[in-house]
Amino acid sequence: MNAQYVLLGFLTEGSNYGYELKKRYDGYFGKDKPILAGQVYSTLARLKRDNKVEEIADTSESGGPDRVRYAITEQGKNDLQSWLESPEAPSPQLQATMYVKTVLAILKDGDAAPYLDNQRKAHVQRMRELTNRRRNSDLSDMLLIDYALYHLEADLRWIELTISRLMKLKEEILHESTNN
């Protein structure tokens, strides 16, 4: 997830402090992995450098140090809108990694079934965890969990298909390996 767009999105509702932006990020998106405060402030610094946010001095009435609020600029609003309108490219990284491990397992041991079985077990376990968590979730969390579950299901279908084709894949890989 691109933190800069999350922060810009939050700032469309009004100016805010870095710490408050971190709390909002964690509340919406960081349940499993909270964002680091340093990442929030370094992202805000880049957004300021790129004229997408501006700092607003917030003079403390209690005599303490001034706090800095951040506000989105017109350029930031335009950039956020462009990002929202752009579709995300499907991400093949996990599938590519599973495929690479399958091939390497065949090359190393002559059999990828143990690797694929372990991967299937890990996916099923993660699906159980998410399904249990989903039972007591609000709608926004349910939607995120459903997204993850559908991706895990697709991976499981790929694993099952690959297992059914292991002998043929092994022949192709070993044939290619002997020809190089």
Automatic annotation (TrEMBL):
SUPFAM superfamilies: Winged helix' DNA-binding domain. Pfam families: PadR. It comes from the Bacteria. Residues 7-81 form the Transcription regulator PadR N-terminal domain. This is PadR family transcriptional regulator. InterPro entries: Tscrpt_reg_PadR_N (IPR005149), WH-like_DNA-bd_sf (IPR036388), WH_DNA-bd_sf (IPR036390). It comes from Candidatus Southlakia epibionticum.
